[in-house]
Amino acid sequence: MEIDFQLDEVLLNAFTDSILNYFQEAIDMDFEMGTPYLSREDILSDYIGIIGVSGNKKGYVIIASNRSALEKIVKCVFDVDPEDDLVTDMAGELVNTIAGNTRKYFGHEFVISAPIVISGKFESLRFPKGIPIFVIPIRFDNEMIQLIIGLE
Amino acid sequence: MENVLIVDDSKLMRTAIQKMVERLGLTVVGVAVDGVEAIEKYKELKPDIVTLDLTMPELDGEKCILEMMKYKSDSKIIVVSALKDDKTRNELIEKGAFAYIPKPLREESLREILNQITGAEV
């Protein structure tokens, strides 16, 4: 696979900035963003929040997280009890905010869908063929969530 | 006392915004989970203030603003959205939104806008 490093740097900068913004503004906890890496492995997690992207970019942006990480974010950001449906919504809310905030970089033609949240497994084959799929690990309070970006 | 209608397809956001609005001393008269329900509740409840999500099933927030403005144009619509770009904000203000708050939503941002609307320290 040929990788356009310049294009990918712009893409990754937009998403890392968006993650930083979310964790600094909304979550009052220390966090660490790991180095992005390429992966086409299937995503297996308690909660998978998916945003479809169309317009000037096409593909998916995904958050994969276990339940305890989302429960901590629900309590910290919204100060509400982490009931089942609120934890599910948190996965959608997180990926929606991180993807939506990148419009600052990608402009008005970067169109995102309403988030859908599934439990279990997302097959990476659903990503458009021939594009790099990046994973950005985010660690906080002994938890790890992953942002997965597959956009052409 | 200003009455508030909360429109968001996420129960998490509806719950969080309702708590914020009530902490600020305003009354939540209704909630809606999509654009179609939002228009129905808007006509029925005639709220002074609406908090409105943009990306929703059925009828999106942008179309909701146009419908709401046709029916009753003096409500103050506060758009709460993850879509963070100036063009989106400017277009929504042009269509009739009173304010645009980018997510992640912070209570201070909502309080500032509500203070402008009510003319009081809430």
Give an account of the 3D structure.
The complex is a heterodimer of chains A (152) and B (122). Chain A is built from 4 helices and 8 strands; from the N terminus they run H-E-E-E-E-H-H-H-E-E-E-E. Chain A is α+β, with helices and mostly antiparallel strands. In chain A, strands 1, 2, 3, 4, 5, 6, 7 and 8 form an 8-stranded antiparallel β-sheet that branches. In chain A, a hairpin with a 2-residue loop joins strand 7 and strand 8. With 122 residues, chain B is an alpha/beta fold. Chain B is 47% helix and 20% strand. Chain B has 5 helices and 5 strands; from the N terminus they run E-H-E-H-E-H-E-H-E-H. Chain B has a 5-stranded parallel β-sheet, sandwiched between helices. In chain B, helix 2 (35-45) packs parallel to helix 3. Chain B is globular. The mean pLDDT of chain B is 93. Chain A binds chain B through residues 21-22, 25-26, 74, 77-80, 85-86, 89-90, 92-93, 96-104, 107-108, 112-114, and chain B through 9-13, 15-16, 19, 55-57, 81-85, 87-88, 102-104, 106.
